[in-house]
Amino acid sequence: MEYGELLTRASECATVEETLTYLSAVAVSSYATTSCRTSKPFNPLLGETFEYDRTSDFGWRSFAEQVSHHPPVSALHVEHNNWTYYQDFSMTSKFRGKYLQVFPIGTTHFVVKSTGHHYTWNKVCTTVHNIIVGKLWVDQSGEIVVKEHTTGASARVKFHPYSYFSRETPRRVTGGVFSPDGSPKFELDGTWDNSMSCAEVLSSDGDDWKTAEQQTRWVKNAPLEDSEKIYHFTAMACTLNEPEEGVAPTDARNRPDQRLMEQQNYPEANSMKLRLEEAQRVRRRAREARVAAEGPAAKYEPKWFKKRECEITGEEIWRFTDEYWKCKETQSWDRCPVLYLEDEEDNDT
Length: 349
Hints:
single chain, about 350 residues, 6-stranded antiparallel β-barrel, two-stranded antiparallel sheet
């Protein structure tokens, strides 16, 4: 949600094709910091959550939950007065000797409430180079297709893989927005680590498009001073771990290992991380024993998301139950598992 204002602008556009230019920029912007962020992050614990309420300044609030650990799946839901944005994310990977390829699984959804237009898009392959020797660097490749399912209009954005022998701009993205009949309406151009623009197509003859002046759709926020010392976090990212009263006990802000690391107490942070992960393994073994004894009814169930069939794509997706914010109002956290206490007991039902 670093560039969440693009979603609001997308919801205010007069045409579906114009909305697609903004959503293409949203899809591209999500890769902006991956070019320099190669450190391994904290792995979310099963049941770990994170809320981010920016209703007062941006008009939206978001909630995420780790709904599965094997395979790892995170579910996200963001609500605004005029739009809804949701997705679940998992991945598969393949080690190719010198590099690692990560293939994302999951579809992103965006619904404009005032029109009912429903947009979806995919993610592209991420490649981490120099896994064995050399400095790690990240590249993106593939194609994102953004589709509006009511009208059939779409956008296609190609991520060009880096080539040492190519004179092409590194990390370039190109593409177009197409009306329901397939005719081009906007040309898209930019780089996934810096900016993206669009230009209205005035006339076209096959792949030869005559366009108007380019309009900027997205520009990456300037990095903070000495950002390389803080994992290249953006200004927004630096606020995410601020302690906040009233959040769920499972909220990531309450993770003691993460807090210790922020306080630069690295030995204690590492020790706490190992204890939390071992506690999770103990819970998993106990749960597996219950499933063997009691059957599938004893399996772990996420607390705030339910798996449903998407009425648009037919895929099974994790959908928000809309219960979290009501429980927060009354501070009713009985359903939350205990994740962060050292002396925790088995409480993952």
